[in-house]
Amino acid sequence: MTQPLQTNPSVTSIDIKAMEVELNEYRHRFEQKVEQRTAQLVRRITLLESCNSTLCDKLELVQRELTALKQQPAAPVTRPYPITQSMPVTQTTPVAGRTRNVLSVIEGRSVHSQREERC
Fold first, then answer.
1. Closest to 99 measured CA to CA, from 91, 107, 111
2. Closest to 20 in 3D by CA, of 37, 3, 43
3. Burial environment of residue 16 by CB neighbours within 10 A (0 to 12, 13 to 18, 19 or more)
4. What is the pLDDT of residues 4-17, one digit of tens each?
5. Residue 15 DSSP class
6. What's the pTM?
7. pLDDT, tens digit (0-9, with 9 covering 90-100), for 32-61
8. Strands 87-95 and 110-118: what pairing?
9. CA-based nearest residue to 81, from 71, 92, 73, 89
């Protein structure tokens, strides 16, 4: 229970009642804000726990797949040509009265392009 305010001759009982009403309003607003914030945090916690569970499941699946891949024998790599050999590809395309030569050379995994424009 609240303690009575010390009486001051300049403070009347009407002022005390008004202060108590105002204090109760502030307390009520504060409790509402606490409830709202608690509800927000509970929703966020629920969402984060759900995301965490989903990510843990995906991680477990990827780890199992990785373990299975490591246990499989390595398949030999077949290439249509040796890595050191180049395969030039030349293409001529007319562009607005000009001719563009595109030379692409494929070496291993990299692709190089050289463009020349002639009038």
1. 91
2. 3
3. middle
4. 556 566 778 888 99
5. H
6. 0.45
7. 999 999 999 999 999 999 999 999 999 999
8. unpaired
9. 89
